[in-house]
Every structure is written in C-alpha cells, then in structure tokens.
Amino acid sequence: MVDLSTAMAAAAAGDRRRGGRDGEKKRPGGKVGTEPFDPADHVIKEKADAASMWLVLIYAVLIATMMRYLIMPALDEPASVLWSLPLLLIFTIPPLHKIILSKYAERYTFGNWFRASFLYTFTWLAVCFILVNPPLADISPPEVAERVKFVDLDEPEWNQTVDDFSYSEDLINRNLALVFAVRDNIDAEGVNVRVEITWTGSGQDVWNRTGSAQSMNLEWANHTANIPAVATKSTDVPILLVLDDISFEAGNIYTIKIELYQDGDPWVLTETETHRFVITQ
Fold first, then answer.
1. C-beta atoms surrounding 84 within 10 Å
2. Handedness of CA 166, 193, 197, 240 (dihedral sign)
3. How far is CA 238 from CA 100, 220, 230, in A?
4. What is the largest CA-CA distance in the chain?
5. What CATH number was assigned to the domain covering residues 143-280?
6. At what angle do helices 110-131 and 93-100 cross, to 10 degrees?
7. I want to staple 237 with a disulfide (CB 3.0 to 4.6 A). Which of 69, 213, 231, 275 is the partner?
C-alpha cells in the first residue's frame, strides 16, 4: 500500500521529466541552427548599405557630368569612348568602396558589387539622357520631315513626290519648284540648308541654293493648301525653291542632294539626304 506523500513525490518527479523533454524541444534555435538577432549589428549593416547606395549614385552622376562637359566637347562627333569608358569604370566600384568606406569594407560581398553595378549603370544612363537632350543640349541632327516633292507653281494641284518621271509629264514646260520641310528638336528655322541638283545631259549641269530654313520658306504660304504630306508638324519649317535654269529633258539623270547643318551643343550636327530620278521617254 502506497501512502499519499509517496504518490505525490512520484507524480512530481514524472512532471519534471516530461517538462525537461518538452523544454529541450522548444528551445529556440536549438535544433535548426538559427542565429540570434543582434539589433546593433543590423543597424551597422543598414548604414553600410545606405552609404554604398549614395556613393554609387554620386559616382554615376559625376561620371555622366564629366563625359558631357569634358569629353564630348573635345570630340567632333559621337565616338565609342562615350559609352565604353563609363562602363569600364564599373570595375572601380569595389576599390572605391574600400577607400572611401573602409570602415564597412568587410561587410561588402559579391551581392553588394552586383547591385551597385546595376545602380551605377542605370543612373549614368538616366543622367546622360537628361544632359544631352533639350533644353540642356541637342545632339540630334535636323532632318527632312516627310516627302520631297515637285510642284507646278502655275498649276499647284500638280505635285509629285520626287521619283522617275515620264516625258509625258512635260516637266520641261512646267514652272516647277522643289518643296520639302525641315524638322529639328529645338530651332528648325535656324537650320542651314544647302540644296544641290546635278544632272547629265545638255545645258548647265549644276544648280544650288544655300540659306537658312526660315529664309527659304517665303513662298510657301501661297501654295501650302495644295501640297500635302510635306510639313506634318507645327514645328516643321517648309521650304519652297523655284527651279529656274534647270533643263528637264528626257534621258537625263538627276541627283538632288539636300544638306542640313546647324551648330548643335556640343558639336556641329549635319544630315544629308539624296534623291535620284530619270526622265524616261
């Protein structure tokens, strides 16, 4: 027969054994190997990442500004150095961190360099896009807006895109003008224009006109309603040039060369468009 005190002691001992096993199972990190959270270390890591981000952003802006205001003015035209040099400078990001952020150097890993490289590249591209486009700069050359046409000034309804013509079109007896429009990002009226027409056959074989786009559109207002598909934007500057002293004869081969140029920023911008046509029998 077991007395009450012995039974209570046995029950307490059993509870202690079960509690010990359960406590071992529930001990945080005891089996899975998780590390305890250290708030102080986490703060240092966040500071290191933030310092890296700002360093890369400032570096990318500095490189883009240097390329725009130091390298580009020294060139006469676009060159591969404008993109190859900034991209090669990606390899300077790790040593830059080790020099400027030396107190965090041991915390940076390959993942940091990978993220920093992407941040640098896209920041550099965004800043370059801003610095080389209007209103800060203009590196896009002017262009002929749409079509180049012939128009008969005595019969404005007759207007044809420059192409091969048949002798039955009777170009030799028409009062012809050459029409096209100039398009530019900033100042289409200030674009310098040179038009040269050469041909093989009898008579004078070279015809040319030079001037600003604005000075060449004085006659346009009299014919604009009859000449579609030339100036399609409000900023386009239409040009009309009377083709006097040109012999339009069957069998001749004609070449129309349109040169557009302007003083861009940071270099001179040029564009050339050439059209050839023949008058067939």
1. 10
2. positive
3. 57, 7, 7
4. 143
5. 2.60.40
6. 100
7. 213
Whats the size of the chain, residue-wise? Answer: 281
**pLDDT averages per 10-residue partition of the chain, 281 residues:** 60 63 51 66 87 96 96 90 95 94 89 94 96 89 91 84 88 89 91 93 81 85 70 88 86 92 89 92 77
CA torsion through residues 134, 135, 137, 142, sign: positive
Residue type at 91?
A: F
List the structure tokens of 66: 């240097």
Count other Cβ atoms within 10 Å, centred on residue 197.
Answer: 20
